[in-house]
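Hey L., structure's done. Input below.
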Amino acid sequence: FYTLARLVVALLVIVGLPAVVCAQAKGRDTVGSLIQRLNHRNVEVRLRAIETLGRLKDARAIGPLLGVLKRDTLYSAREKIVMALNQIGPPAMEALITSLDSHDQRFRHDVSWTLGKMLPLSHEPLVAALAHESDLVRRGAIRALGRGKDVAAVDPLLTALDDGNALVRAEAAE
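Output:
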């Protein structure tokens, strides 16, 4: 019977029913079960887990999603993680802003893009990040504010033109 149950759950995932149904059918913690699936070898299982975690909007998924964003090279997975973090909303912002300090340029780019997608919700935290001690965080915040095409971002971006770091000034000038 156990093997049959596993087969039914596998078929549900393959057919495309939400992973939440599968996790609940097994009687497991839905979010925990989905987080475990973020490392599944099957790409479709990973992508469905990412999508469902975004729909659940549970803050427990933020750290694991950021971890996958940092290491997964698959564009569709990275894109879905950005959307999932955007769906989670304000609870994800602090972790995203902290992640701007990463030395991984691709990861920083994805994080700033995500924050830019979260505007206007992320406006105040991004403006506050312009005063961060790390030039990487300041540059990422500028990039996110610039992507948002928000008129309210003009003054903070103009102020960033006077930053003590040449790379931060160059980012603000773009």
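The longest helix spans residues 2-15. Residues 100 and 108 are 5 Å apart (CA to CA).

-- N.
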